[in-house]
Specification:
This protein is an alpha/beta fold and about 500 residues long. The protein has helices at about 10-15, 20-30, 35, 50-60, 70-80, 85-100, 165-180, 190-195, 200-215, 230-250, 260-275, 280-285, 370-380, 390, 395-410, 410-425, 430-445, 450-455, 475-490, and strands at about 120-125, 130-135, 135, 140-145, 155-160, 185, 220, 255, 300-305, 310-315, 320, 330-335, 340-345, 345-355, 365.
Length: about 500
């Protein structure tokens, strides 16, 4: 083409190395060959021509969210003679039609985040992790807090599901571990916290949430209900956290933990390693955070309960036992996610494990056999049909012993022996050792003998020291008084 500016078509073609005919063809039409091609037309009849405009398009216009497979099934039902192989053709045609004629879709607007501005809270289920505590399946959730700018994270194991108490405790733990407070706090609509509450209770919960935000001087914000991507900075990190937990469990080689504290330390280590990798960003954002208040605010619910003649109280459809000397008293209970602190007036009495109602809605039980064993020894037959009999046994060995005794020696003797075993475990403080001894007896095909076990776990007389006390004769006091009198006379 450069030669054509100065030479004839024949000379330019010769210099370029192609024929004169090609030169004159280019001279007459300078378009590229690819631009001269006519669009390829349909080479076979349109299989949807008879139904597309008359039936399929009206369906899509009437119900834009209708799936392509539903349209295909309906067309096949209306026209049995249609070829079933048109499904992919129909799906492509519908996809193209929606791109040209469909409704506008929601647009996600990416945001620029400033340090110290926004912190996010959410809950995530951990059922897929298959964690067990002392061999028992552990159903739980994680409260998850995250700073958007630096990616600082905090996770707190939640036992009772999504609730305001869990949110309060988890959020405060996160802020005090961080050492500062962001400007805004965003959560979901807290639908789980409001579920099954009447209007007054919902208003009270809203007031408590705003009081929590005012205490830390954070502006509360919420994403729209059901719009998860508005909380996307923490929703996406849920998946990363769960994968990190799963990887750590696989590397550990065991998903069973001795107790809840061990599992919580395990989660803290995972979160700590994540935060260590983002130390520079976290330090940058920490300098932009506001200072913490002088103290934490309450992260529990408070209730007044009466201890009944049954030796306990009912709170949130769970029966808790307490020492029988408290029968007739009213206790003030601070209700946390995993425990109850009980007070008589201002005196702290005890801390109880928090229980949950049963899945069928019936009352749950948190039983400590030490609270009632003294009364049960007077009425051992009460054990037979006790409402919470299965929960009174501290270990599986005692339940096995009761079942074996019932089948071998009858209900009356079984109740008496089992109660004596529980009393022995309490009085000698040998619950675990006694349980192992009972297991050994049952595995050997023998029933536990209370008298033999009492002798076995009796105090060792040789271990008690012999103390010889030498009494001073009374005349020594008279001599001491005389010496004191002489000293006073000399001094005078």
């Amino acid at each position: 083409m450069r030669s054509r500016h100065t030479d004839t078509p024949v000379a330019a073609a010769a210099k370029s190395g192609f024929s004169t005919a090609t030169a004159y063809r280019i001279e007459s039409d300078p378009r590229l060959p690819s631009h001269k091609k006519e669009p390829r037309g349909r080479r076979r009849p349109d299989p949807l021509a008879a139904v597309w405009d008359s039936e399929i398009v009206p369906m899509l216009e009437a119900a834009p969210e209708l799936r392509a497979i539903a349209v295909f099934d309906e067309i096949c039902r209306r026209h049995p003679d249609i070829n079933p192989g048109i499904r992919r053709t129909l799906e492509r045609r519908i996809r193209t039609w929606r791109a040209l004629n469909g409704a506008d879709k929601q647009v996600i607007f990416r945001q620029t985040h400033e340090p110290g501005r926004l912190g996010l809270s959410d809950f995530t289920h951990m059922g897929a992790s298959s964690v067990t505590i002392a061999g028992e399946p552990f159903k739980h959730m994680l409260y998850h807090f995250r700073l958007v700018f630096s990616g600082f994270e905090h996770a707190h194991v939640v036992l009772g599901g999504e609730s305001f108490v869990a949110l309060t405790e988890g959020l405060q733990n996160a802020l005090w571990a961080l050492g500062g407070v962001p400007d805004q706090h965003r959560s979901d609509s807290l639908s789980a916290a409001f579920r099954n509450l009447d209007r007054d209770a919902k208003q009270d919960l809203t007031r408590r949430y705003h009081a929590l935000m005012q205490h830390y001087r954070m502006m509360p914000t919420r994403n729209n209900t059901g719009v998860a991507h508005e909380n996307g900075s923490i929703e996406s990190s849920h998946g990363h956290l769960k994968k990190a937990v799963e990887d750590a469990l696989l590397l550990r080689g065991n998903k069973d933990f001795n107790d809840l504290d061990s599992y919580r330390r395990f989660i803290d280590e995972i979160i700590g390693r994540h935060n260590a990798r983002r130390r520079k960003q976290i330090d940058l954002e920490r300098s932009k955070l506001r200072s913490l208040p002088k103290r934490r605010t309450t992260d529990y619910e408070e209730a007044l309960v009466s201890v009944t003649s049954s030796g306990g109280f009912i709170l949130n459809k769970v029966f808790y036992t307490v020492p029988s000397r408290l029968i007739g008293h009213r206790l003030r209970v601070q209700l946390y996610d995993d425990r109850l602190d009980c007070f008589l007036g201002s005196s702290h009495l005890m801390t109880l494990r928090r229980g949950r109602p049963k899945d069928n809605g019936k009352t749950g039980h948190v039983i400590d056999y030490r609270h009632i064993i003294h009364a049960l020894r007077k009425k051992p037959m009460a054990l037979l049909n006790l409402v919470y009999r299965d929960q009174i046994f501290p270990r599986q060995a005692y339940a096995r012993a009761f079942d074996a005794l019932c089948s071998e020696v009858g209900d009356k003797h079984a109740c008496k022996v089992t109660v004596e075993l529980l009393a022995l475990a309490h009085e000698r403080t040998c619950e675990a050792e006694l349980g192992q001894a009972i297991e050994s007896e049952l595995d050997a095909g023998r029933l536990p003998d209370p008298k033999a076990l009492t002798r076995r776990f009796a105090p060792d007389a040789a271990a008690v020291p012999v103390v010889n006390v030498k009494l001073v004769p009374l005349t020594a006091y008279d001599e001491l008084a005389a010496v004191v009198t002489i000293q006073h006379e000399v001094a005078a």
